[in-house]
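Example record

The entry below shows one chain as it appears in the dataset: sequence first, then structure tokens.
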Amino acid sequence: MDGPPACLHTPKPIMPFAKLNYWLIAGMLLPLVLLVLALINPDAPDYEVIERGDGFQLREYAPMRVAETRVQADFDAVDAAAYPQLLDYVRGRNALGRKVPMLAPAMFQRVAGGDGDDWLVGFVMAKEYPMYMLPPPGTDAVSLRQLPAELIAARRFGGGWGQARWEAQADELLRSVERAGLRPVGEPVFARYNAPFVPGFLRRNEVLLSVER
């Protein structure tokens, strides 16, 4: 009499080569995708959109702190004149030798009453750092300033950073806020959220204008 049949083991299915390739490639690309997303959508100051107007958002910004420097330069040369001093500060060349995290955007604003080539350029400090935690600058060329909560009209656009483009957007924003019955306060701010190597069609550029109702 034959004994009981031998126990048969069903072999485990092997992952198809194409599927395995897919997951390997996806795993390798994920860090790159996350980096690209961080470059095109960087961390920014806190605000709440309270209204949408004709081509702009009306935002309530929380208070923020900026490191800024004042330079005299043509529009296209402002960043080259200002960035080295500001980058030195956030990279640790300050009074405490400590690196300071920052947010986007870099902000450019003409000095009111200046000759047109007089600019304030600011980097926004990380929101977790109150003023007393920020190291003093190591040079008189850089200063720290607390910006109060503000009502800001913001017009967003992509593309390049040429002067004509910025000023056309600023003019359009000014007309829009006046049509909406808002009163502009001060000079417009040109806000750059992305690094220069980010393609123009992926860039987030904004004109920011402080307003009152």
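Notes for this example: The two ends are 100 Å apart (CA to CA). The mean pLDDT is 86.
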